[in-house]
Design goal:
The structure is a single chain. By secondary structure, the protein is of the alpha/beta class. It has 3 domains: 6-151, Rossmann fold (3-Layer(aba) Sandwich), CATH 3.40.50; 180-392, Rossmann fold (3-Layer(aba) Sandwich), CATH 3.40.50; 394-499, 2-Layer Sandwich (GMP Synthetase, Chain A, domain 3), CATH 3.30.300.30. Helices cover 27% and strands 26% of the residues. It is built from 12 helices and 27 strands. It has helices at residues 6-13, 29-45, 62-74, 87-97, 108-119, 172-186, 203-215, 227-236, 246-256, 277-285, 404-412, 449-457, and strands spanning 18-22, 25-28, 53-57, 77-80, 101-104, 124-127, 154-157, 167-170, 193-196, 218-221, 241-245, 267-271, 290-296, 301-306, 319-320, 325-329, 342-347, 354-355, 366-367, 370-379, 385-390, 395-397, 400-402, 417-427, 431-440, 468-471, 498-499. The strands form 6 sheets. A 9-stranded mixed β-sheet has the order 2-1-10-9-11-12-13-14-15, with helices on both faces. Strands 16, 17, 19, 20 and 21 form a 5-stranded antiparallel β-sheet that branches. A hairpin with a 5-residue loop joins strand 20 and strand 21. It is globular and about 65 Å long.
């Protein structure tokens, strides 16, 4: 099962077990595998060969799932594209990855793909619907050539909060180890039914699909995140697991009102950034089984997770997954004592081989097998991880470290604030000072900057209190719900942002 296409092996073992629920229909592993065999044959007829990079511009839909497994069968590499990117941004990823084929969806995505293809010479653009030839002959022998090749299963581009995004090369072994270690950490049952509403071009969404095939469990696929739809599925479709960011969880709770989560929901995996105490406690009060996790695209998803069955608040440590080693280091890369903060380094069979086209040298992302994450954290005496923030987001104010996530967590406790983002601004006296952009909660009286400053002083040291507060109608987040702090400064003089 390790070298053959995973879906075909799964279908041979449990052909009648439900694999995918999408658009009101249920596909079993055997039926899904047959569709994928035809699609793989159609791709090979178009010239797709082992090692080719094929870009996919699709929303969360059945055809995306089929293409994922068909490319695995062809020995080709999947390049899932963020549907919210501009043609220029997409063109960069096509050129950087060496993609030769761009498969796209209909309507708006077709237009985006057309513009992108005109900017990317040598890339063939094909509608994913044009591959629906179920009469194509199936030749099984050439459909499992990946064993022994260096071609990654997928190239996933990081969000690129600073500079251009970089493509993480993730192998089958990376995803396999991620699925096995996550399943051993959280537990796996035959009746697991995982709701996938994260975008499939995100490592969290993609991992759900692959874990389902490897473990033989079913996946409920939502085309996009919608809080009301998530609540309906949790209540009526016996969802046992759901993956969300903290922002998504907040929206689910708000849409849910006072209703408790049903007993069949066994795990709400919350990642993609810090979860505030206020959201965490609200979720626990509504009987959501919260499992906080720290993960990375470069490590094929989860790195350290606290299962829902373990006690502790949002600040409690996270346990590394099986086979994962963690190290906290100083600016020179030397390990620091227990409890001392520093940069988080990760070593695991799930860690990528590297970024595509990354030059060799001292500044590379991997050092002796250790992934230099750029995130800041500390380990306790039991080896559990506390994550503070990204090093690139760290604000050094008058020689003191200010973590934006900590300031955001404090401000989220204010009853009039629905969302908040913090980043550093230049200051003549201290070098940098934190500044906050906040979104008011509907129907609440908007506090003044003086009131917010006083609110922060009750909860934070003086040097952590924001220098300025900017009211906004919304905050810049990427498709996975992560706050894009580098874009907050662009909002300072926008019409919808005002310094109070």
């Amino acid at each position: 099962m390790l070298n053959a296409p995973w879906l075909f092996e799964r279908a041979a073992v449990t052909p009648d077990r439900a694999a995918l629920h999408v658009d009101g229909a249920t596909l079993r592993f055997g039926a899904l595998a047959l569709r994928v065999r035809h699609l793989a044959a159609a791709l090979r007829a178009r010239g797709v060969r082992c090692g080719d990079v094929v870009a996919v511009l699709l929303e969360n839909e059945l055809r995306f799932v089929e293409i994922l497994h068909a490319l695995d069968a062809c020995g080709a590499t999947l390049l899932p594209l963020n549907v919210r990117l501009s043609p220029r941004e997409l063109c960069f990823q096509l050129g950087d990855s060496g993609a030769r084929l761009l498969l796209h969806g209909s309507e708006a995505l077709a237009e985006t793909a057309a513009v992108t293809a005109r900017m990317a010479p040598g890339v063939e653009r094909v509608s994913a619907d044009a591959l629906d030839d179920t009469t194509a002959p199936i030749h099984l022998e050439p459909l499992a050539p990946r064993a022994g090749t260096a071609a990654p299963l997928a190239i996933l581009y990081t969000s690129g909060t600073t500079g251009r995004p970089r493509g993480a090369c993730l192998s089958r072994d990376n995803f396999l180890w991620s699925a096995v270690s996550a399943s051993m950490h959280l537990g796996v049952h035959r009746d697991d039914h995982w709701l996938a509403c994260l975008p499939l071009f995100h490592v969290g969404g993609l991992s759900i699909l692959l874990r389902g095939v490897l473990c033989g469990t079913s996946t409920l696929l939502h085309r996009r995140f919608d809080a009301d739809a998530v609540n309906r599925s949790i209540d009526t479709e016996r969802v046992t697991h759901v993956s969300l960011t903290a922002t998504m969880l907040q929206r689910v709770l708000e849409a849910r009102g006072g209703r408790d989560a049903p007993a069949h929901l066994r795990c709400a995996l919350i990642g993609g950034g810090p979860c505030s105490r206020e959201i965490f406690e609200r979720a626990r009060a509504r009987r959501f089984p919260i499992a906080l996790t720290y993960g990375l695209t470069e490590a094929a998803s989860q790195v350290a997770t606290r299962p829902a069955c373990e006690e502790g608040g949002p600040d409690a440590g996270l346990t590394p997954l099986l086979g994962t080693e963690l190290r906290i280091v100083d600016a020179r890369g030397a390990p620091v004592p227990t409890g001392v903060e520093g940069e988080i380094w990760v070593k695991s069979p799930s860690v990528m081989s590297g970024y595509i086209r990354e030059p060799e040298g001292e500044g590379t992302s991997l050092r002796d097998g250790w992934l230099r994450t750029g995130d800041m954290g500390a380990l306790d005496a039991e080896g559990r991880l506390r994550v503070f923030d990204r090093r690139s987001d760290l604000i050094i104010s008058g020689g003191e470290n200010v973590y934006p996530a900590e300031v955001e967590a404090a401000l989220r406790e204010h009853p009039a604030i629905a969302d908040v983002g913090v980043t550093g601004v230049d200051d003549d006296e201290y070098g940098r000072r934190p500044a906050a952009w906040w979104v008011p909660r509907p129907g609440a009286d908007a506090p003044s900057a003086r009131e917010l400053r006083a609110f922060c002083r009750e909860r934070l040291a003086g040097y952590k209190v924001p220098l300025a507060f900017y009211r906004a109608t919304s905050l810049p987040r990427n498709a996975a719900g992560k706050l894009q702090r580098h874009r907050l400064l662009e909002m300072q003089h926008d019409d919808h942002g005002a310094n109070e």
